[in-house]
Amino acid sequence: MSTDLAATLDLDALHDRIDTVLADVLRRSPAGIPPQEDRVRELTGALNDFVLAPGKRIRPLLCVLGWHAAGGGQEEECLWRMAASLEVFHAFALIHDDIIDNSPTRRRRSSAHRAFAARHRARPDADAFGVHAAILLGDLALVCSDALMNSAGLSKRQRQAALPLVDAMRGELLMGQHLDLLATGRPTGDVDEAMAIARLKTAKYTIERPLHLGAALAGADRELLALCSAYALPLGEAFQLRDDLLGVFGDPARTGKPVLDDLRSGKATVLMALALRRAAPEQRSTLDALVGRADLQEEDAVRIRRILERTGARDTAESMITERYERALAALDTDLLAPPIAAALRQIAARAVIRTA
Amino acid sequence: MSTDLAATLDLDALHDRIDTVLADVLRRSPAGIPPQEDRVRELTGALNDFVLAPGKRIRPLLCVLGWHAAGGGQEEECLWRMAASLEVFHAFALIHDDIIDNSPTRRRRSSAHRAFAARHRARPDADAFGVHAAILLGDLALVCSDALMNSAGLSKRQRQAALPLVDAMRGELLMGQHLDLLATGRPTGDVDEAMAIARLKTAKYTIERPLHLGAALAGADRELLALCSAYALPLGEAFQLRDDLLGVFGDPARTGKPVLDDLRSGKATVLMALALRRAAPEQRSTLDALVGRADLQEEDAVRIRRILERTGARDTAESMITERYERALAALDTDLLAPPIAAALRQIAARAVIRTA
Hints:
2 copies of one chain form a homodimer.
Chain A: H1 2-8, H2 11-27, H3 41-52, H4 58-69, H5 77-101, E1 105-106, E2 109-110, H6 112-119, H7 126-150, H8 156-183, H9 191-217, H10 222-249, H11 252-255, H12 261-265, H13 270-278, H14 281-290, H15 298-310, H16 313-331, H17 339-353
Antiparallel strand pairs in A: 1-2
Helix pairs in contact in A: 1-17, 2-5, 3-7, 4-5, 4-9, 4-17, 5-7, 6-7, 8-9, 9-10, 9-13, 10-16, 13-16, 14-15, 16-17
């Protein structure tokens, strides 16, 4: 049994299975739109392309692991549909986020609004058209993730346990997006505020809620949900801190994301808040003058990176990651989890925190 | 019993009841966001203001009428929540639609993106900020309408009957929005295409699906659903044709909507398609040169209105409305409907078609 579970919990195999499920559910009609409807094939095709582009699938993976953490046994069809629904919902979040951040790329491809604009370059209003089509594409992804949940065939018990978590997750994400929108472009030394955004957008949305959702589908009790949180919240904060560091110090060839984006948009990250809080007056003026400039160049980034290092912000962020990573791992030292599931969660944690992309 | 039903079906009383329900559900937490969460009060406050601004409430009204058409009897709590969910979903659709159409106003107030921009005028990126905040506000409305459905307490039978209709309605709306986006700015003489958009965005989304939804919640059979369609689809087309006419010939003091908006954006309405199809070469050149110009002035509108009249497009649109209105009323001549419900549906039809706002 334990060996069976270890085989079931091979993360690469689960990842492939999730990709298969996603391709399968999207091949059928996404949200009431018949796939043979030629006139909107551009929209449905764009949704398929976006969702099926290679990705980490961390939310569906955690959902399946949550199921097994709660002793769900053989995975049921409804679990796969809910896991797929999380990934399609995430497509919604990314598509709208890329519009808001004015990001030109996503997963090494053009972002959705840029791709629409390029395909309709002949229109005089191509750029605005691209944004508008991408708003609708994000909406379609959200509606499609609902349709997947609505047709998942959940039992009454599962619905009562899972749907409030889904509603909470969505509200938390949007709350985080809104706070992020307010803070972006004008980062301050308010570390707590930056951490609050990281907690909502990443710790809860990316790690805790997907794990809770899978666990709830398998009938988890409060004790297990609390254990999931004890693992997920520090891990999620560490995951976001790693993202912040990669956004400034990362290798664009590996991250697939231009390394100047976060600095140009003036993302209010914990990393930047630490630097601003500790900066000497001259360093502070440099940061204020450069961070958030749309025309920021690599030589400006070099100056900012130097300040992030000299203020100790980079080192502090690294220690915060280590401390949180260890706290997440410590939460797994419990009899509540079968050893193979604890091992899989350790592997996920390592991937989330020790990475270059 | 029949007299009781007639009292129940007083449209103004129903409208007030819907407003009460909306205020009540929004006062509690919309989607997992606690109402006391100060930092996002701007977002949740904007959602409340938008949804609670005076409106026709036609979708919730039709949902309740569908319930009674199917003999649902005393309205259940779940019906009100589903009806409210339709109105909150509609807020989502309007908020994103106003961004896409670049509409400055909605219901005599600033549209959501303009209101956000005005409140954050001190930001150097106030206009972009307004659009981005409104994207999130629309998303929140959609997530909130889901949370209302998820917590409506539907029985298994109701869920199985209603949720596929909801999914279909949402897919149809987005399909209509996408076709509308593609066609706007470059209207053609393709009357069928313009009618296809009207059918998706209005006939199905605004009239048929809300009626179906209420009827399905009360256990309607296929025969009754078909009857609802026979009434709803022609009525919805007539409703949209009336909107098209008001968008060009309406009195802005009554419609609350600048009368040049449709012409400036180049809406691909059935009315415009009729004119373009019949226009003499010189009329055609005038329409091509003026319709869709962002800087179109009242004197241009006067020239366009004259062409809409001389080509007979305006008269044809009026006859199409009359023909469809009569077809909708004829569908109500059946023993399947109790007389008070048929009377209420007749009243709704008259309000939809014979109006100045």
